[in-house]
Amino acid sequence: MIAPSILAADFARLADSAAAVEGSADWLHVDVMDYHFVPNLTIGLPVVQSLRKATTLPFDCHLMIADPARWAPQYAEAGAYNVTFHAEAATDPAAIAKDLRAAGSRAGLAIDRDTPVEGYLDLLPHFDLLLIMTIKAGFGGQAFIPELLDKVRAARRHVDTGHLELRIEVDGGVAEDTIAACAEAGADTFVAGTAVFGAEDPAAAVRRLRALASG
Ligand code: DX5
Ligand code: ZN
Where is the active site (predicted)? Predict the structure, then answer.
């Protein structure tokens, strides 16, 4: 599954950017940053609510925000297909996952660059998706960190041996030269910002990425 990130799109033409990958992308990845959990600021609920009416693509909301217990369910209510929040920002991740599911979305748990995955493996049965950052969360266009794929491998082993129904998503620096390594490590869902919306033809870029991930 390929989820283009609108962080790399033209924020004045988000509906056009979504339309450019409708039919090629599986999900639209929406990065919400609050200037507190990360030093960057992007968009919030009003934009997600408006954009929801402008495309049929399912939304994969990635909340890089403080206090997800308070805000995350509202993204589910706004019609997000999946809502992912950061483990580092949550005191009771399983409770938030439960609230997200009750509000009508799937629940994702994100692990930032400096957070080991081991402490969260036992929580995975509460989730539909595990997002493993392959950069430090906060900005698009950063260089992929291959060492972080060790976390993907550990998660994949855990998911397979535990027979869990869970997507493993990678986010950050995923591009034509890195996506195959991500897939090999065990990721099945790929966020790509610059590699899609920085390309001349975003739809063609999505198709090339999918082909490279499928080996
Ligand atoms: C960064 C965001 C990413 C970002 C990735 O914190 O979570 O989704 O858009 O951008 P690229 O693909 O350019 O690294
Ligand atoms: Zn993201």
Answer: 31, 171
Q: Is 86 in the pocket of ligand 1 (CB under 6 A)?
A: no
Give pLDDT tens digits for 128-159.
999 999 999 999 999 999 999 999 999 999 99
The length of the chain is 215
> Ligand 1: does its nearest atom lie under 6 Å from the Cβ of 112?
no
Tens digits of per-residue pLDDT, 75-119? 999 999 999 999 999 999 999 999 999 999 999 999 999 999 999
Tokens of 146: 């291959």
Q: CB within 8 A of 212, min separation 6: which ones?
A: 176, 179, 180, 183
CA nearest to 123, candidates 143, 140, 144, 108: 108
Give the ligand with the smallest distance to the CA of 136: 1
